Amino acid sequence: MSNTTEFSWDEASGMPLLAKLRSDLKAAMLGRNEAVKGAIRIIISEFPTKITLPITLESGKKSSRPKHDDEITNDEIITVIMGLCKSEKQTLEFTKQATSDYLQVLESYLPKMATEEEIMDWTRENIDLSKFKSPMQAMGTIMKHFGKTADGNAVKKVLTSIAG
Length: 164
Prior knowledge:
Layout: H1 17-30, H2 34-50, E1 52-56, E2 62-66, H3 74-94, H4 101-108, H5 116-126, H6 139-146, H7 152-163
Antiparallel strand pairs: 1-2
């Protein structure tokens, strides 16, 4: 396994994810780190099709255009990376492999995921389940709070255990 620990992103750093990807790509090219270079190139190559802005052409026809760098948000990039992770995990499952360098590089650019314990604590402190017909109806509120750092399956598991 090549050393990918110096290639990662943390929202607390204050550096936009796009800027971090570009600087890490440059460092990976200079350091001849093929795993990181390849993964970042794949991430960036997804932007023109996945991160677009809806527009209306002069003819009135609806269309879209790729967003410019200054229009791209960290959340949009994280969504792209999560999609790539999901497809890589499916590929690994199909080939019966546990992980890959590519998946590890992708995951290093994702925010730290909330643990079931953190989700449970926040839910107990902030949500009155008696106000919902079913505990699962609280899922939207919880997912909104945690954003991309909570896995829907983990939230579902927490709600089931609280209700159960």
